[in-house]
Structure formats: C-alpha cells, structure tokens
Amino acid sequence: MRWPRIGLWIFPILLLCGRVSYSHHSFSAVYDGTKETTVAGAVTQFRFVNPHAMMYLDATDSSGKIVK
User: Which residue range(s) make up the domain with 16?
Assistant: First the structure.
C-alpha cells in the first residue's frame, strides 16, 4: 500500500520538472513559428557543440549565387 501513495506524489513532481526544463529555451525569441522555410543545398559541416548541434550548408539564392 505504501508504493501507490508514493507514486501519487512522485508522478506530479516529475511532470513539473519536465515543464521547467522545457521552458529553458525560448522558441519565439529566435524563430517565427508561423513561417515555414525550406532550404536546399549541400551540407558542408556539422558541429556538435554541447548543448546544441549546428549544420552549415551552401545554398543558391534567387540570383544563382552560392550563399553560406
């Protein structure tokens, strides 16, 4: 009988901890979530720098010029 009562306390605490860690990064401060952008190009570099990964690519713009 003791474990179900402990679970009733642990489960909400874990849910709250997940919410706190999710709010660490602000999506709207960096990205516009209402706009979708598609980019086609050649991947030139991957960087795995803690805590984020970055991808660099060479793409052509509307005038046909290669843009990094």
Answer: 2-67
* Number of domains into which the chain is organized: 1
Tokens of 14: 């874990």
Per-residue confidence in pLDDT tens, the chain, 68 aa: 566 677 677 877 777 766 555 555 666 777 788 999 888 899 999 999 877 788 999 999 889 999 99
Residue 57 makes CB contacts below 8 A (sequence gap 6+) with: 39, 41, 42, 43, 44, 68
Q: Which of 66, 1, 5, 12 is nearest to 39 (CA)?
A: 66
What residues contact 66, with CB distance under 8 A and at least 6 apart? 58, 59, 60
Single pTM value for the model: 0.47
Cα 68 to Cα 61: distance, rounded to the nearest angstrom: 10
